[in-house]
């Protein structure tokens, strides 16, 4: 079995992206019997999805998990749903700033992750790693890639599984940005290992709550 992990390059003026730094630590590892392959993707509308598509063709993965930075979050957040909407608060790394435009014209309003997201969160928490289910991946390039990935998989005859995980800032970023939560790179890496192992070992998810009140 092969697992593909993707991580974005730095964006928004930051010199580092914790998603990319973490996935680089996992390249080539064997986790729960699955070989991990990693690729850097650009924080650019359209080009990011194209890079994911190329990586799928190159590595033929059974599972694809895209990883992104979510500054301000305190936990590893395993995403539930991607929406067909690009509404960028800031420009991407090539200055694109769409407003209320579809990721895929004519595509469905949303796609759900096909990973055992609640079991992944439970496994992370059992290892003392802050984690929760997230019900919004935003409307920037993270959601753009998440939706684009799930659209690719929906039209793929191989029935690959996929999803998205957001990670907090690194401590070095939080120190510079002031009053922002962070997580050590080592903890993020261990969390992603746990998430991959859980996804490999589980086809079905747990029937437990992961909802919010608002």
From TrEMBL:
Q: Which InterPro entries match?
A: Peptidase_C15, Peptidase_C15-like, Peptidase_C15-like_sf, PGP-I_bact-type, PGPEP1_Cys_AS, PGPEP1_Glu_AS
- Where is the catalytic site? 79, 142, 166
GO BP terms, alphabetized? proteolysis
Q: State if Hydrolase is listed as a keyword.
A: yes
Keywords for the protein's UniProt record, in alphabetical order: Cytoplasm, Hydrolase, Protease, Thiol protease
Subcellular location(s) of the protein:
Cytoplasm
Cite the GO molecular-function annotations of the record: pyroglutamyl-peptidase activity
Q: Into which EC class is this enzyme placed?
A: hydrolase
Task: Give the enzyme's EC designation.
Answer: 3.4.19.3
The record ties this protein, via Pfam families, to: Peptidase_C15 (PF01470)
Give a Gene Ontology cellular component term annotated to this protein: cytosol
Q: Which domain of life is it from?
A: Bacteria
Q: Which reaction does it catalyse?
A: Release of an N-terminal pyroglutamyl group from a polypeptide, the second amino acid generally not being Pro
The record's listing under SUPFAM superfamilies reads: Pyrrolidone carboxyl peptidase (pyroglutamate aminopeptidase)
HAMAP family attached here? Pyrrolid_peptidase
| Function of the protein | Removes 5-oxoproline from various penultimate amino acid residues except L-proline.
Q: Relate the assembly described in the record.
A: Homotetramer.
Cited PANTHER family = PROTEASE FAMILY C15 PYROGLUTAMYL-PEPTIDASE I-RELATED, PYROGLUTAMYL-PEPTIDASE I
Which family does the similarity line name? Belongs to the peptidase C15 family.
**Know the name of this protein?**
Pyrrolidone-carboxylate peptidase
């Amino acid at each position: 079995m092969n697992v593909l992990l993707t991580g974005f390059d730095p964006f928004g003026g930051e010199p580092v992206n914790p998603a990319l730094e973490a996935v680089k630590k996992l390249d080539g590892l064997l986790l729960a019997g699955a070989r991990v392959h990693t690729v850097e993707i650009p924080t650019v509308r359209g080009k990011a999805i194209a890079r994911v598509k190329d990586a799928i063709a190159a590595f033929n993965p059974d599972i694809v998990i895209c990883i992104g930075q979510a500054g301000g979050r305190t936990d590893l957040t395993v995403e539930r749903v991607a929406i067909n909407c690009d509404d960028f608060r800031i420009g991407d790394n090539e200055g694109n700033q769409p407003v209320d435009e579809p990721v895929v014209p004519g595509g469905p309003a949303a796609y759900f992750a096909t990973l055992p997201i609640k079991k992944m969160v439970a496994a992370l928490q059992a290892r003392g790693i802050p984690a929760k289910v997230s019900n919004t991946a935003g409307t920037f390039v993270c959601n753009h890639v998440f939706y684009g990935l799930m659209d690719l998989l929906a039209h793929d005859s191989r029935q690959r599984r996929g999803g998205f995980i957001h990670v907090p800032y690194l401590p070095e970023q939080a120190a510079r940005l002031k009053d922002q939560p962070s997580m050590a790179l080592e903890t993020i890496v261990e969390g992603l290992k746990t998430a991959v192992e859980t996804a490999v070992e589980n086809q079905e998810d747990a029937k437990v709550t992961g909802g919010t009140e608002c």
